[in-house]
Amino acid sequence: MLHIFAFISYVFISCITPGPNNIMCMNNGGKYGVKKSLPFCAGVATGFSLVLICCMLCNLFLYRYIPKIVGVMTVFGAVYILYLAWIVWRDKPKKTKNRRYSLDTLAFSTAIMLQFVNPKGLLFGMTLITSFVFPYDQSMRVFLLVLGFNWIVVAFSCGCWVLFGSVFHSFFEKYRRILNGFMALLLVYCAASLFI
User: pTM for this one?
Assistant: First the structure.
């Protein structure tokens, strides 16, 4: 049975925490406004979905033709999630450089292409599929639900960073230790749920 809470926690934490997409969304929102940043947000969500489709196809091949890899992939997925928990727990504020992005960073197609070189997104996709989806269900209905849910969460996350970039910055600075501890514990739960 799919661990829904662990799945949702992993998706939400991975998508809302700072990464290349969210930092660019925050930066674009601050410089160009919400309306001009929306195409970039939609491109990020769409590109992320395309990366997820590639991860699903790759994993589908591995699961169908190399079934013994399931156990190994589950262990690697759990180790990676625990590594993320450790990184989140140890996170310290970093000085952000004041970079100037040109208007073409807002383009829908640019945002899609960026997803294929975003290591956080690629690792997220592989871990999500191997640890939270394939061990429980490999049907087209579940694939489409996972894709749709991820698109919504990624778009929501990008929108939050665009709209509230400065608010999030001050909020994370003020409550950084508490939030990091909470997110790290949720990630540890996600890793443990793979073996329950």
Answer: 0.67
Six token digits for residue 187? 């990630």
What's the pLDDT score for residue 86?
A: 81
CB 118 within 8 A of CB 21: yes
- Listed in sequence order, the residues at least 6 apart from 24 whose beta carbon sits closer than 8 Å to its beta carbon are 40, 101, 105, 114
Query: What confidence score (pLDDT) does residue 106 get?
Result: 47
Q: Write the CB contacts of 149 (distance below 8 Å, at least 6 apart in sequence).
A: 11
Q: Tell me the DSSP string of the chain.
A: ---HHHHHHHHHHHHHS--HHHHHHHHHHHHH-HHHHHHHHHHHHHHHHHHHHHHHHHHHHHHHH-TTHHHHHHHHHHHHHHHHHHHHHH----PPP-PPPPGGGG-HHHHHHHHTT-HHHHHHHHHHIIIIITTT---HHHHHHHHHHHHHHHHHHHHHHHHHHHHHHHHHHHHHHHHHHHHHHHHHHHHHHTT-
pLDDT tens, position by position, 45-89:
999 999 999 988 888 887 777 767 667 767 776 787 787 678 767
pLDDT exceeds 90 at position 132: no
Residue 17 dihedral angles phi and psi, to the nearest 5°: -70, 155
